[in-house]
Design goal:
Blueprint (H helix, E strand, L loop, with lengths): L2 H14 L1 H5 L3 H37 L3 E3 L6 E3 L4 H11 L9 E5 L36 H4 L1 E4 L4 E6 L3 E2 L15 E2 L3 E6 L1 E4 L2 E4 L6 H26 L17 E5 L2 H18 L7 E4 L1 H8 L35 E4 L7 E5 L1 H4 E5 L4 E5 L5 H4 L1 E14 L5 E6 L4
Parallel strand pairs: 4-15, 11-18, 12-13
Antiparallel strand pairs: 1-2, 3-16, 5-8, 6-7, 9-17, 10-17, 12-14, 14-18, 15-17, 16-17
Helix pairs in contact: 1-3, 4-6
Length: 406
Amino acid sequence: MTLKEKLAALKKELAGLTEMVKSGDDSSTKRAKEIVDTEIPALEKQIADANEKHRLLDAMKSNEPVDSDPHDGSQKASAKTLGQAAAAAVKSNGSVFGKRFTVVASGAKAATDPNTNPAGDYKPIITEFRPDIQTGPRRQLTVADLFSQETTNATAVTYFVEGAVDGAPTTIAEGGAYPQIHSAEPTAQTDALKKLGCFYKDTDELLADTPRLAQSIDNRANYLMDITEEDQLLAGDGTGNNILGLLHRSGLQTATVASLELALLAIKHAKVLIKKNTPGFRADGLLLNDEDWDLLTNLQDANKQFLAGGPFYGAYSSMNSNIAEEPPLWGLRPVPTQAVAAGTIVIGAFALGGSVIRKGGRSVEMTNSDGTDFEKGMMTIRPSERLALAIRYPAAFMKLTVSPGA
């Protein structure tokens, strides 16, 4: 009898003791206690140890990451990234050369040009092909991670935004009249999931080099998808196929100041207003343009001391060897990003006030049956995803505009 069969037998025995335990039978109660407290935990530990041993052996054989299925204890290879999932899908389909194929996996040249090796008549006799792709400047991606993360199987999400409350409870004299309070009807807000995607072409030689195939998807397509996702979540206008982004939501708190120096005080006051106009939410971050952050951290007092700390010492020459490149501002995590226009600062309770809702995660499809791909030895790679942004408490966010002369 296997360990799993023994475990099933114990659970079956335990189920058979239920009525006897309910009736107060001492021997049945004692036996049930032995099963629950001792025998089942011991068997589950043996099964877990065996699964871990198999996982390690499989990983040593395949040199690929392997995870255990939490439901049945079976072993399965797991891809850490979308590109690795695509490479694994190509491997599992065997050789695809000489035939048409289509692969689906879940989890810079001009846009119309395929990515090919450099042209030319001369090639060295021995050529080393490096699988890593040299990338250009990259934008730090942080906006989506500030929000809570949710999933759905639907094509749209409807939720209710709390209405304003009129009146308030008061103290009442004996026999006196009670005051009335009235809550405005909550407003239904529906956010349809929108699809993001693109495609690019590459030569089918990439299929023979699955590590480079994974890097091609992760280092280029995934990054460009992330950039579009970030821009849409923050500034999408909701028209056509655009996501309705945070900055275009009605009900956001707003303020305008004339300078970055005054913005420091306005950010502090925004924390109070967010807490006041929501169910007590506390702001947990602020988004601002990289250049605005640079100007803020350059601010000095009358003694030429940097407010955010000097280049060699902490604030006011404190001997702090752990100087933070992005120190907290009024206790808030600053997120400098190019996704926000210069002169705009967003303070918010991101984790409580909104969430990014995804359907099925990001997937990638590959085929050599698009147009003339097959006859030219090309393939088309198409990543896509479906997502929406839900802002349940618009007042949890403050849009602060820095406008000289305001």
